[in-house]
Amino acid sequence: MTSRAFALTAAALCLGLVVAGVADDVPAPARRVEAGRRLFIESGCHGCHTVGAMGTPIGPDLARLGARWGLDEIERWLRDPSAQRPRAHMPKLELSEAQVRALGAYLSSLR
Length: 111
Ligand code: HEC
Known about the structure:
single chain
């Protein structure tokens, strides 16, 4: 390999690494939304809520929650509904902070 070809190959490899590094960062929010979507089913939210056609209509439909509530509001609600609304019927659920963030990302993506 000539030194010029070597330099070009090295440059292409570096560029590839940079692009791969960026591409790796891009899906992070999407992964959080996907994790939240799964949690919504696994942690029983759909036992009391619908998102469009899926779920049970005991509590409000959340299909367009992201258009109605900000992310902060959603996360505060999930941490403790009765702290937001003293007469809330929704129970306080045992959610970790990571679960609250994932559910918040998912719900605020619903518009
Ligand atoms: C036992 C039933 C029940 C479960 C389980 C439940 N909710 Fe609720 N949720 C309610 C009810 C009822 C309301 C209506 C407000 C109230 O009176 O508490 C509500 C309200 C909400 C609201 C506010 C919506 C609005 O438009 O006012 C959000 C957001 C929400 N729930 C998200 C969730 C998520 C996410 C989960 C799962 C982690 C969940 N809920 C689990 C019953 C439930």
